[in-house]
Design brief:
By secondary structure, the protein is mainly alpha-helical. It has a single domain, classed as Up-down Bundle (Ferritin). It is built from 15 helices and two strands. Strands 1-2 form a two-stranded antiparallel sheet. Strand 1 and strand 2 form a beta hairpin. The termini are far apart.
């Protein structure tokens, strides 16, 4: 049995059923199963001045933002895998079944995460606009090789890293079950990407158009931008420019930006992608444009979708943002906000020690020291 056939066999044997996840469980933000320290806002005076209830509400929403980005990535992954299946069906007939199974698995990931966020956590944010734009560009690209390269090496790697962080720290039973099921599939998807190194290297050996390099560069930048939970920060009354700078400084200190500048190009290079100029661009301009000169031009998102909750003035107090009994989700529906009293050890009805505590690529020991 060859490697691809073994992956097909693994997918069939380890398939999980959507209806068998413990959907009967309620997500209770007041239980001691969530993180409560914000990864990006934790060191700020504005955050420290908040009451414990307000902090936990803030981290709850910060985590939901990151899971919402993961959600849009799963939906795009479903589309990309289906495109590659159609475009390469004759060229690589032996890969049809694994690609079909991967598309089905991405669809289940999307459906499970969407149900968790919309029905259980009841907070669903619009995706980071830069991430959404990058995913749209990859989906529109005519080359199946570039779709595979970016879908598996850039976006799938980022998703697997986030899921690993979440699963390691998850104690909320329903979310832990959803993420564990997803992570098993994602590990198999990454294993499949290893089988494509040789055929990709052959295709890319003749060189690439500058536009392809631009697409790769912008996809990596979009992955960085997706860390910046701006709609949530705005709810705290913090300026976007200040929070961007604070967040990017932390990502730099923890070595996460270094990984984007080095690990991703290393993986691309193993697939035959020429990375000399890309490495220079990532070294010089990875975060360029994320800190515009004018505070008025800071937003990554259109003004109409800057926050998934009620629009509020930055001058309003944190209590004004988090003391309401209702909140508005990204799709415009009204949902019950987390109850203000009696929060205990952590904070997010939508996640565990998620990337709010330790984003993708962050060393877990460092994240632990941040919490102590």
């Amino acid at each position: 049995m060859n490697r691809v056939s073994a992956l097909v066999d693994s997918a069939l044997r380890n398939a999980w059923a959507y209806d068998e996840l413990p959907w009967q469980l309620e997500v209770d933000p007041e239980r001691e199963v969530f993180p409560w320290e914000s990864f990006f806002a934790g060191g700020l005076k504005s955050f420290r001045k908040m009451s414990l209830t307000q902090r936990r509400s803030f981290v709850f929403r910060e985590t939901c933002f990151h899971l919402s980005n993961l959600l849009v990535g799963e939906r795009s992954g479903e589309h990309l895998v289906a495109q590659v299946l159609v475009l390469t069906a004759r060229e690589r007939p032996g890969h049809r079944e694994i690609l079909a199974l991967m598309a089905q698995e991405e669809a289940k990931h999307y459906l499970a995460l969407h149900r968790y966020l919309s029905e259980k956590a009841r907070v669903l944010y619009p995706p980071c606009p830069k991430l959404r734009s990058a995913l749209d560009a990859v989906e529109a690209c005519a080359s199946p090789e570039i779709k595979v390269l970016l879908g598996q090496v850039v976006f799938e790697w980022n998703a697997a890293s986030l899921l690993s962080t979440l699963v390691t720290k998850a104690r909320e039973p329903l979310l832990a079950a959803v993420l564990r099921a997803n992570l098993k599939d994602e590990a198999r998807h990454l294993a499949y990407s290893q089988e494509l190194r040789e055929p990709l290297a052959k295709v890319l050996s003749g060189g690439i158009a500058r536009g392809m390099e631009d697409l790769v560069f912008e996809s990596v930048r979009a992955s960085v931008a997706a860390h910046l939970a701006e709609p949530v920060w705005e709810e705290l009354g913090l300026t976007r420019r200040r929070m961007r700078k604070h967040a990017l400084d932390r990502l730099e200190r923890l070595g996460i930006l270094h990984r984007y500048r080095t690990v991703v190009p290393d993986q691309l290079e193993r697939c035959g992608f020429p990375t000399g100029r890309l490495r220079r661009r990532l070294g010089q301009s990875l975060v360029k444009g994320l800190l515009p000169d004018s505070p008025r031009g800071c937003s990554l998102a259109p003004a109409a979708s800057r926050t998934a909750s009620r629009s509020t003035s930055c001058a309003a107090s944190p209590a004004a943002h988090f003391g309401t009994s209702r909140s508005r989700s990204a799709n415009g529906s009204t949902a019950r906000a987390p109850a203000p009293p009696r929060w205990r050890r952590v904070a997010c009805a939508a996640a565990i020690a998620c990337c709010s505590v330790c984003p993708p690529g962050a060393p877990s020991s460092t994240a632990s020291s941040e919490r102590r």
